[in-house]
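Hi there. Long-time user, first ticket. I'm pasting a complex I've been working with (about 890 residues overall). I'd like to know whether the download I got is complete or cut off, because the file seemed smaller than I expected. Thanks.
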Amino acid sequence: MPRKLRPWLLSAPALLLVLLFLGLPVLSTLATTFGDPKGPLAQYATFFNSRFRMTVLWRTMEVALITTAVSVVVGFITAWVVAQAPARVKSLLIIAAVFPLLTGVVVRSFAWLVILGKNGILNDFLLWIGVISEPLTMLYTKGSVIVAMIYLFVPLMILTLVGVLEGIPQDLTDAAASLGAKPGAAFRQVVLPLAVPGLIVGSVLVFTGSFTSYATPQLLGGEGQMMMGTFLYQRAMVTFDWVGASTIAAVMVVVTLTTVLIMSKIARRVNPMAG
Amino acid sequence: MTVSLSLDNVTAHYGSTKVLEDLSLHVGEGELVSLLGSSGCGKTTTLRLVAGFLEPTSGSIKLGERDLTRLPAHARNIGLVFQTYALFPHLTVRDNVAFGLKQRGVGAADRRKRADDMIERVGLGHLADRHPANLSGGQRQRVALARALVIEPPLLMFDEPLSNLDAKLRVDMRVEIRRLQQANGTTALYVTHDQEEAFSISDRVAIMNAGKIMQLDTPEVLYSRPANAFVADFVGFENMIPMRAISEAGDAVRAEMAGGATIDLPKEKFTVPAQDFILATRPEGLLVAAEGQGVPTKLGLRTYLGRAYQYQCDTPAGEIKANGPLSQPFESGSSAVLVPQPEQCCLLPTEAA
Amino acid sequence: MKQRIHPLLVAFAVLVFFFLLGPLVIILGSAVSDTSYLTFPPQGLTLRWFSNIFEISAFVRTMKTSFLLAVGGTALSMAIGIPAAYALARFRFQLPAFLGNIYVLPILIPEIVLGFSLMKTVAIGADVPIMLALLLGHALIVLPYCVRVVGASLNSFDFSIEEAAVSLGCPRWKAFFTVVLPNVRAGIIAGFILAFITSLNDVSVSIFLTGPGVSTLPIQLLAHMEQFFDPTIASVSVLLMGVTVAVMAIVERTLGLTFLTK
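Hi, the file is complete. Here it is re-exported in full:
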């Protein structure tokens, strides 16, 4: 095969798959949204003027932001402990974090269905110890969605941050100590600044993941707590409003892509290793 | 401000492995002592114990009157230069150098002035606002040095500070390190695996092996009078000829070597340490001659060294390297005698295996 | 980075791991409970919910579909992803830098948007058979794993070895199969297995491409959960966790699980 073309020929099948079956369909979805006879932006006017749609959008934002914030805090502390653990304990803890991560979303969401249901384990337990006299309604609330989302994404955050913390050379914390920095000061002045890029990357993963999730809000939120993912599905497959569904899709794409682009630019700027 | 460093009977373990055994070491005020040895000999462990990154199993570490043994690393006030430099990548050169001052509560203005002065002293005044990623290896080394010096520590420690630099820079930097250390009169402990580096700048050198100090002395003594076979081998005494004293022959001791050949060693020039001993020399310590008191040999391959010829010699005691004068080349295959040159030979006791 | 840590932080981390593993233990427990409803701790001990899975034909059918899809989609993705990863690593300077980003688009674009768009444009618009559309969709969502994981192995591969083979008279294509591939085997196995589990667990793309006749196990599970609430679901979940365990064992054997923290 011709020398110059070789790299391109090797890349072609994968490129074609992405361009034909991702690029084209997604662009077509986005294009659909501008085809309204009332003007190219009419669909968006409808979207942003609709109280219901905006409620769904804000709810999704809220859930995603809370999930991200909690995951950052919980994930960072846990990752810190994992990173300091002796080698054998550390590999066990990493296994314990990887296992849920590789277990499907449906299975993991189902667990919370069992825990939070009216006749669920938590209610049973609370009734049994006598804290409550009637089962609480925990399922199909924003809270149940958030708890399950946090459950979904904490392992991802832990693993990302363990990698980041392990990547900070021991010499740097040793150097800080030799220069007189107490452990707290070394953490604030050396470890934390060096972990910021990793924190940003982890946050982006969690935010976009929870913002676009489908199975969890479907199972634990139901009709009452619709989020962008479940809303898109409902518009497309229940009411067959494909243009409306496309508009929801477009909003999701814009939100996730801008988040990724802006945050990765910030991560690059604050990354000291890049100089 | 100058104080001495004392390690007394320090033993240390990594897990259950003993890495340092009953080690005692004294570094005098303003003295630079190097710990020299191959990797795993315990030199870096010793430094990390003094720095406070490791705790000894037993023994004590003192800096002047201050007992450091159980003090946390951040309270020890020791300037440490790392092999990797360990510069904080997120801080500028100035902030790196000022880091230690900040921990000591020095005010911002004073901090900046003292950091800038020190950066100037190591010749990096124009780079104070750069980040480490934008510096060359030599410049990073200087920042690391400035950062350790600016806190005016009573003790400076260096952990293989030059191993990541190219050969020419290494020579320049070690001179620089010695200059700054002497200018401040700071006591210093220097860890390296490079013999030339250790010998060139140290007041004294400790040669270490398997968690013990094999010999601690000035470079001059170590180079010419190693105290044991390990040190002799380490400093380049390539030939080790086992011998046994069998009788007195007038003013000399007659010794026998493998193969039954004997040699008379004049008592005024050689001190035989035990009945079984080793004659250790560098190639230039054995002179190839047609005849004389020496080790009989058959000469093998001859190579030209510029100042002498070197011969691979096949002796009853094994393969030996010896030098011969340029004026008198021997043919390969001829027989000759290797005459020990007293001032370049050491007689060492045979070590218990 | 080893430092002493505050016991409170350790306690917190212990709680977190309890939170992470507890729900999965609950599923395990309720799958073996000898009751017709989901409960924990289990009352009695039975495996009948596991045998019950195989009496529900929808589970058996979708299990087969999911497995075929995961194997087929991953194989397809590997077949085109390995050459792409090789080209990226080997011809780093001939190919534009953004090319590597194109392969990760399936991660960047929300999966649910991809699923919807595939349904609209490919399955219905182009009248592509549903099974083929599913296969393409799954190949797409696992492509980033194939390219990235294999790429990571290739980046540490010394291409002068390949040149040595060629200089010794081995044709290039043969050198690729006999010298390059065996040396990045660990990356290929790990990439395959991660892609496999991703495909097996997928919901967001599959949900739009399934319907009467064709469905995948997670979608069938979702549908089942909305109507029934018996331990069968738990036992299917346990089976899926078993697959996860197998996957982890293979990744650990090949690249090591710490690979996942990078």
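A couple of notes from our side: The mean pLDDT of chain B is 92. The radius of gyration of chain B is 25 Å.
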